[in-house]
Structures are given as structure tokens and as C-alpha cells.
Amino acid sequence: MGKMRTKKNKINFFKYMSIFLSIVSIIVLLLIYFINVLPLEYFIVLFALILLIDIIVIMLLLSKSKIKNVFGTILSLILIIIMIFGITYELNTIDFLKQFGFNSYKTEKYNVVVLKESEYTDIADINNFKIGHLNQDDYSGLKEGIKKIEAKITFQSVELEDITNLLNELIDKNVEAIILEDAQLEIIEEENYEEYEQLKIIYSVEVEIEIPKIGESVDVTKYPFNIFVSGIDTYGSVTKSSRSDVNILVSINPSTHKILLTNIPRDYYVLLPEFNAYDKLTHAGIYGIETSISAVEELLDTKINYYVKVNFTSLIDIVDALGGITINSKYDFVSKDGYHYTKGENYLNGKETLSFVRERKAFALGDRVRGENQEIVLEALINKAMSPKIIIQYNDLLNALSNKFVTNITNEEMTKFIKKQIEEVNSWDIESISLDGTDSYEYTYSYKSSKLYVMQSYKESVTNAKNQIANILQ
To answer: Which residue stretches of 98-162 are H helix?
Structure first.
């Protein structure tokens, strides 16, 4: 009786193993189908292969031969473990793809700023005092920020024309405090460090602002398109509005498999169409990715279909998740962070990469070299991401990318593009160019009262970029 029960239990075990293997296989196939990056013919082959393997293993499990049963059990356990890992990869992929698609808001952080020498340490300390700020009608985020501050204290508004006037009124003690957005404080730090050192923040509020729909979708497997890559100079949330240190237009032709990277120096003097005024391109990021895009479209006479916005945190995490990248530096130099780069090949981790793309003071050509280095890193990232070795770092990369970028590329467009590349298995020809100009000092929209360093464009440099972009997109 005991032997019969034992035999029955073994039969049931093999049946359950067969059923479990079948269920796990079905889940794997359904998730692959749902992710939709595998071409149909590849999916059919994979389906047939998994079906065939399952049938063989199940036949071994249900065989009356003990040896076949043992062999079937070992095979089924190996297959189930592999498939569970596969399911983990697939679920991470689904979560990753959820991040794609237009993000309808941006984040701005407004600060109540006082003199460092003052005794004010809390928002309540300046109740019923004068607070200076810019025109609320010009900045929708400022209006919302002031409402939040008014919920905390009562104050007398003093509306001033620009940042310089705000600083002067505060330093002259005509107002007890001023309201400035994070990016505006960063401008002061960069352009007038002595005055910046006299300031302290006693209160901050964040506001979310809706932004207009950006770009125009195309069939990314058939037609050429432009992607604007904006790297903002902040850590933390990538939805935050801030100066754009990296401004690269990526022109892609899926038919010719050509990519052109056009770097635009951060200090390029450009028209901001929304305000009908000129400013540094880096300052356009203060008003949102939409302002940066319209400025680049105006400059290069082209239509930008998509954008990808990243920040310092994004770059560090992505490079580390890829296991580092190899770049070829044109110069031997030491960055302000103390990292040494040799002329030629360098293997960099995330922090070293960030320092590499931010450095400009180590070079006689300053921002021009920084722009070239940014293109070198972007090309290295593209090549590493397209390498078959990416499978090893796949999960780490997806985790690193989680909430580290903002884009209007939809998950459908992304999967369609990936599917096309898997199907064709073609290498890409990547070229890089950089816009050039001459050093100058001009008034800017963001800092009206003082002339700031800018780079005035060389007409021939812009014309050359327009022609090369047009050639890629034709």
C-alpha cells in the first residue's frame, strides 16, 4: 500500500512539473508578445522552439522510465529557472517602457531668499514685510509659487523688472526678501558669485506647470527624424526646469542607417521665439524643454520630432549600469573634480564621465571642447548600448534608467524601432559636428541689466549644420 502511494505521489509530482512548466512557458510567450519588440518571424520560431522543448521534457517527465523521469526533472527545473529569469527581464522591460510618452508637466522650485547676514531663518520671520519678485504675468510658475507663500505669511509685494534689480533692492535693504527660482539662483551663482555668496534660502516651494504638446510623430522605421537631447545641470528629479548644459540634436535616418550628432554650445546666442528676445541657449532650459526646442528649431531651420531630457544623476547611473564606457579624449587634462584624462583611450565610470562632459576651463577653446566631449560620450553610450554585451547589464540598465529621463517618444514608437533593428541587424554610421562662433558680451532675456558672456554664431557654421542635417533627413 505504501509503495503504491509513493508511486502515485511520484506520478502526481511529474504531472505538476509538466503543468507548471507549461504555465511558465505560456507566461514567457505572452509577455514577449505584449512587449512587441520581436519581429513576427522570430516570435514564431521562438514559439515553436519552446513548444518543442516543452513537449520533449513533458514526455520525459511522464515516461514510465525512471531514468527519463530524472532527466526530465532536471531539464524542467533548468528551464523553469531560465524562464523565471526571463519573466523578470520582461516585467522590468514593461516597467521601463511605461516611462515613454509625453510628460505634460514641468517642476519649478521657488525660493524665499534673504541676506545671509540677516537674522531671518524661517518664513515666519518675514511676516508683514516687503518681498520682491519678478512680474507674475510673465512667469506662470511664479504666480503659483507666490500663492503657496501667501498661504504661509502675509507680505507686501514689490514687483521688479529683472534679477539684477531684485538683488540690488535686497542688498540695499529696500526689501527684506526676494523670490527666485532655482535656475535663476544658478545664473546669479555663475555670473555674480560675490553677490550669490551674500544670500541664503529660508523657504522653498515646488510647483508643477502644464506644458504644451511638443513635437510631431513620424513612422520611425521609415522616415528620418530629429531628437533633441537636453542635459540639465541638476541632480534629482529630471522634470525640474533648469539650465541646459548639453544641447545635442540627433538626426536619424532609419533607411540609410545614418546618425548625425549636432552639438550646440551652451552659451550660443539664440532667439527665444516665445519671448521674441535673445539669450544663451543654456538659459532657454529655465523656461522648459519646449523653449529650448523652439530656439534650436529657429536656429537650425528644422523640425524637432522628439526630445530626451536627462540630468547629472541620469548620466552617472546609466554609465555605471553599462559597466562604464570607453572614450577617446583629444586632450590630456585634469578636470576641476581632480580626475585625470589621458589623450587617447580612457575607460570611465559614471562620475568620471560626468566630470569629462562638464569640463571646459581646462581648455583654451573652453566650451567648444566641452561640446566635442559631450558628443564623444554620447557616441560611446550609443555604441555600448548597441553591443551584444548589453544583455549582461540589461536589468541594471533598466533600473538605472527608471525615472531618470523625460521624453515624448512613445513606447509604441520605441518598440517599433527596436523591432526594426532586430529584424535588419544593421550597423549605424555615426557622425558628429559642432557649431562654432565668436566670443562676445551681450544683454540676455534672463539677465537684462548686465551684459553676459555669449557665443555669437558663425554664419558659415550654422549654414553647414543646416545642410548636413537636411542631407540626413532627405
So the answer is: 140-150
